[in-house]
Fold this sequence. Notes:
The chain contains no helices and four strands. It is an all-beta fold.
Amino acid sequence: MISHYKRQWKLDQDGSLWIIAENSIEQVGCIHTCQGLEVDYIGVIIGPDLVVRDGQVVTSPEERDKYDKSIRGWKN
């Protein structure tokens, strides 16, 4: 299933406090900018690199963004 979900990445005018801004419900950001804060709503966007195969949740590193440094050297 391909989703056409779109949201702005963080609120530019609020810097690191984007998640507690009034309009942040319409924004998305990474886990690093929201950890330690309490919010009323939270969601997780799961990309194509996390899949279920034979009932097991596994990662598929080849589906990650080519600029993702967490898999540097994986293809070698």
